[in-house]
Amino acid sequence: MTLLEGCVGVEDLVLLEPLEQESLLKNLQLRYENKEIYTYIGNVLISVNPYQQLPIYGPEFIAQYRDYTFYELKPHIYALANVAYQSLRDRDRDQCILITGESGAGKTEASKLVMSYVAAVCGKGEQVNSVKEQLLQSNPVLEAFGNAKTIRNNNSSRFGKYMDIEFDFKGAPLGGVITNYLLEKSRVVKQLDGERNFHIFYQLLAGADAHLLEALKLERDTSRYAYLNQKVSRVDGMDDASNFKSVQNAMTVIGFSEVENQQVLEVTALVLKLGNVELGDESQANRTSASSICDERGIQEIGRMMGLNSEELEKALCSRTVKTAKEEVVTTLNVIQAQYARDALAKNIYSRLFNWIVNRINESIKVGIGESKKVMGVLDIYGFEILEDNSFEQFVINYCNEKLQQVFIEMTLKEEQEEYKREGIPWTKVDYFDNGIICNLIEHNQRGILAMLDEECLRPGVVSDSTFLAKLNQVFSKHGYYESKVTQNAQRQYDHSMGLSCFRICHYAGKVTYNVNSFIDKNNDLLFRDLSQAMWKAQHPLLRSLFPEGDPKQASLKRPPTAGAQFKSSVAILMKNLYSKNPNYIRCIKPNEHQQRGQFSSELVATQTRYLGLLENVRVRRAGYAYRQRYGPFLERYRMLGRNTWPRWNGGDREGVEKVLGELSLSSEELAFGETKIFIRSPRTLFYLEEQRRLRLQQLATLIQKIYRGWRCRTNYQLMRKSQILISSWFRGNMQKKRYEKIRASTVLIQAFVRGWKARKNYRKYFRSGAALTLADFIYKSLTQKFLLGLRNNLPSTNILDRTWPAAPYRCFNTANQELRQLFYHWKCKKFRDRLSPKQVEILKEKLCASELFKDKKASYPQSVPIPFCGDYIGLQGNPKVQKLKGGEEGPVLMADTVKKVNRGNGKTSSRILLLTKGHVILIDTKKSQAKTVIGLDSVTEVSVTSFKDGLFSLHLSEISSVGSKGDFLLVSEHVIELLTKMYQAVLDATQRQLLITVTEKFSVRFKESSVAIKVIQGPEGGRNDKLRCKKKGSRCLEVTVQ
């Protein structure tokens, strides 16, 4: 661990030389200018606000700091958060992180960084992640409703927040509780120049869509609302519209329902609209001053949003009812009083809404009753404020900071020095300023400023801020930390900056002058009972729940506690809570007044370091011990480092600690043995102990693993030995069984050979030499019988397409097996033929004839095989005219089809009906149904057909016939395979000769006295018999393209 090597300046001010105010400031400035904003004083973290985003945050840096101890890496807020979390998780010590500093020093950002780190390093799981997300998402909601832009800070917390994050025994978050302190509700109705109202008002107007604004009766222009500072409506670097969406999403994650979200926004809008209620003077008959609402429309709109009659609301704003035990008196309010009532109502509505939001968040993140838990508290409270005009709010804020400074003094400076005395450790006392006298000046029960303020508010008679100041001057006239104009005059001091209505307190952070104007009113924090009752009558559910005292059944004449008394009580509870936990300090410093990056004001920082007591803290740290622990827990943690104390120690705790540290040979200067605790001076020594403990734990883990592995190996060996013995016994038994079987088989074989030898010997002696042939014949017949019987049982099916046949078992039966196969196939064919009808026989004969004529010759033949021959393709039965043309003596028509006749002269086609009978081919005109040509089958000598898929064919006729003298015919048919097959059979039946069918692409046809050469070619798209293109090539050539 090195704290000085390779770092900018001194990372821990305990090591600073020389230890002076000037050197401390120079060290902080040097580190700040090099963007090193964090510095240690022992375990106290100093954070200087950089006013810019630095690349030192995120998952990568979280992973680094969670694996190292406090001083092993650069100073960082993650290191302090890690120490607090590990101490809570591993040592069961409740923690609190106190973040202090002036307004604008970066306290809010520091608290968010602490929470983000803890959320990142604690446990995982669906429920755990949900709790972490709810805890983290509470920040943007509370910032929107509780933060505002001030002169010193663009995102200043205008309330105090203390969050207790509760964890289970594993360190996983269970939930939390948020406590808020003294919201600055006066900001709702009035802001200083250069400041804004709370963020939520600007976010609502900028981020809400038009539909939502219309529902809330709002307008987007901020200048339309009296409660919003018109000069400062936007903040550099802050996007109100996107922040509004983030707030809405955060409320959903926390568990706000849509109805609750809407109601919160409605109440927020009501506060804005109340500021626009104008009040005017009105005189009554008795000449007393009164007031009235100038804008009736506006008050009616507010009444509708509240669910309240506008007349009742106007009456509550402009009059006041005073009840006594005997009577009830109604008095009218003048304009100033009515305006005060209006502003008081707006402040109370907003303040109670904020409290309701905090309570609603607590409901979502609370931990169940009975669960054991550890607690880490994070305090983010308003910083010390010194303004030009300091009022009641600054007074109580600075009082709270005084108490926090007192906690720091007592738990770091005073407590540490007193602890050394109690433990009997030699010690040189370090002087420091104890601000207990200032806290006592403010909070003393009888003679404190708050007590006298409450007394002045409660006493009868004329009460004013002046009487309160006069009382302070009387009581504290000789107090060393109180000043006023009266006390200065008494001491003959002249200070022109002190006003007549002011008093001054010398706080630890400097002198602050307070103006007592409105102290009485702000402390009373009164809301007229008429307004509370009117709000309780409202029909708006959320608004009504904010004013339970308005219920007449719960009405009480008892005066409510003052604001000062409530705040004092809350601070006392907070202090008690902080004292019960182990503190971790983050001291935030503001480097300049202008929120500018890179600027370092030495005077401003010197003032802050002086009142924060940083120099005294360094002196105490340097003179004292960095770590102390009771002997019992210390021995329990480190006793494994000593041979005498491990694994068992029966002596006293202190003696055991001395034994452990004595064996480690540590320097006596590093150690001090107190009455009940061991003290260690340097963090290096503690790190050394932790490192030795880590190594020893590894050794013990290795020892445990070794013993466990040995036991496991022995157990495994014993199991293996038992298994081996069992397997060996079974193996030997099995080997003996196999050996016995082998011996037995050998014995049987020898016996068989002996018996065979004896049989052969007896055979030669008693039987004929021809017995071998008899035996061979018997064996052959037996095999033959077995073959035939097996064939009978395994005959294939009678389907003629099934050509399977069992193989012969022996080669001697191959010839017989083939003959039997042929016989069986012929028998199946005969059986199939016997089952056919005459018509089926004729169809098969035609198909067989077509196969013989066109198989492997004509491309369209395969397509025609599965299609049965129909014969009639023109509906001959329904066409009596065509039936008459065939003649009665011709018999039935063998084929009737529509063909195209090709003109041999010009290549054009004309449609014809072709009738094929037993003796003729008749061509009929399709239009006139008249026979154009009758061709006898004996005149047909040859048919030419192409090999393509087309239907073109030529009928070559005999020249001596009457029809043939005109020439041959060139026809096209879609059923050319069927037509030519039937024509072939008809010619064979009629003339007892076979018709010659030639398959060719080139042939000639006779045309009158000459011949025409026909050339058939195939087009690019393949042969289709429905489209032909004929082209004349000269006078004696015709080119036909089939496509």
Automatic annotation (TrEMBL):
Binding site for ATP: G101, E102, S103, G104, A105, G106, K107, T108
SMART domains per record: IQ, MYSc
GO cellular component labels: brush border; cytoplasm; microvillus; myosin complex; plasma membrane
Similarity comment text for this entry: Belongs to the TRAFAC class myosin-kinesin ATPase superfamily. Myosin family.
InterPro entries per the UniProt record, alphabetical: IQ_motif_EF-hand-BS, Kinesin_motor_dom_sf, Myosin_head_motor_dom-like, Myosin_TH1, MYSc_Myo1, P-loop_NTPase
Molecular function as annotated in GO: actin filament binding; ATP binding; calmodulin binding; microfilament motor activity
Span of domain Myosin motor: 8-694
Limits of the TH1 domain: 858-1042
Pfam families for this protein: IQ, Myosin_head, Myosin_TH1
PROSITE patterns in the cross-refs: IQ, MYOSIN_MOTOR, TH1
Annotated keywords: Actin-binding, ATP-binding, Calmodulin-binding, Motor protein, Myosin, Nucleotide-binding, Repeat
Record region (Actin-binding): 571-593
Organism: Suricata suricatta
Protein name per the record: Unconventional myosin-Ia
GO biological process: actin filament organization; actin filament-based movement; endocytosis; sensory perception of sound
